[in-house]
Amino acid sequence: MPTPVPTTASNHLPPSRTPSDPQSTSARQSSLRESNLGLVVRTVYASPTALSRAGVAGRTSLTRSTVSRLVDDLVAGGVLAELGQAEATGRGRPATPLVPGAGLAALGLQVNATYLAARVVDLRGTVVAERVEYADLVSSEPAPTLTRLAALSTQALKEVPGDVRLVGAGLALPGIVSADTGRLLLAPNLGWADVRPADLVRRAAIAGLTLNVGNEADLAARTVAEMAPGRPSSLRDFVYLSGEIGIGGAAIVDGQVMQGRHGWAGEIGHVCVDPDGPVCPCGATGCLEQYAGRRALLAAAGLPPGSTPAELRDAARSGGRRAERAVSRAVKALGIALAGVVNVLDIPDIVLGGDLGQIADVLAPGLEVQLRSRTLSARWVSPTIHTASDDPAPGATGAALRELSAVLAHPAAWLP
Questions:
Q1: Total domains, the chain
Q2: For position 288, which CATH number holds?
């Protein structure tokens, strides 16, 4: 016979948690609504073609009446928009296609060794406003540089239509970033260390928003993984290499940046390719960026420091001996570094961005040969080189995309 359980207060749910309590029921209903709002939004955004309300109901298994109520709220909040009604093809009311809304946008900022950028991107992935200023920022001072960036931001925000609401502000920086504390720990090519940008950028210059910092290459890689907010690209696993004066890197798995324990993973530019090589600004010797970074390539090719990647490419194509040797040297260094990454991570797709993307046609043939000879798995899956789009400030776009992802995850927070 079972032992009777003593009746005490601890055996009963407290009054505030009883299933019949109206507040508990209301909380559950609110949580369910928020979950369903997110499901509807992500379904519409991820679809390569515009869905109707009935189409959303079919993909989510929600009832049509539920989807209709949710869509009404999302359209009112600017998260979704309705296009003109499609032509009727049978009985009943014509379907109205749903698309991402244009009522919400995010501010993306970027500091690089050669430029500053401020860009406003909406939920459709459209650049609403932007400002880019080119400058030599190597060994610059953080305070005046970020003051210049704030001025660019102010100019860009003046171009944003009055009916567009900003949901967040992000800043891409070329170095090791502590996202938890909002600090840039080290940016060798800028010459910055232990900087908290939020302390140096006036809140008014970013519309009173909290400034969230991130690594430039991590954020730029996001623009390859996402065609637009919430819409994944066909390339879901890849190694991204951002070539500027320095070289940033990121590993992407299933569309997400591989952060590492502290969020510092992906510093491929500081992989050693020759222990006896030149000293890097980071303090080590023989780092990849000392062979494949912009300044290293131009110097090895005998070109002036202000030369463009296109000029380097043309010199190599036209048979210039020094340019050919510079490219060959960079290819070998890239092959050593990237083969190590592929062997360790089993990610054979390589995306070249920034300067490296602009000269990918002279790098790719030799680099693919290098990777096939150095990668253990190449006999079964040969590494493949891809080129990122020619975006002048992909980190700024990625910073905005990261802020917009919060809307897709929790759209209820942005509804009136």
A1: 3
A2: 3.30.420.40
